[in-house]
Amino acid sequence: MKRWLVGFLSVIASVTMVMGSVYAADAGSEADPLVSKSYVDDKIEQVLAKIGQGSGGTAAGAAFTPVNVAVGKTIIGGEGTEIILRAGKAGVVVSGSEGISDVTTGQTLYNGHSAALNHLNIISRADGRGFKVTEAAWFLVKGSYTVK
Question: Alpha-carbon dihedral of residues 20, 25, 29, 31, nearest 10 degrees?
């Protein structure tokens, strides 16, 4: 009886393994995909749409725009605008107690500070923050801005 039971269980186990491998062989193939191509394409389109939104209506990863600002003029950034002083000299203009983030050094710049060349500065709010030019300057700007 034991031999019969062991033999029967061996046959059942063998049949189960063979059937499992037959069904598993097609999983993930073109005939039986794990996910449909249209599902993947749809998800990729959703991610690309989110990447393209960015802040302030500009595409994420958009290029910096070179901006020439004359002496005495002020460049004011919108919320989330990135500004780099490439040439010239400019002082920080802040309307309140908060400043402009110099993310190159990790410091906050306030009125009276000078912008350092080639440092990335981020305007956190659209409340009049920017840089007043004291020597003809070139800036690289990503985001919205005005020159007054």
Answer: -70
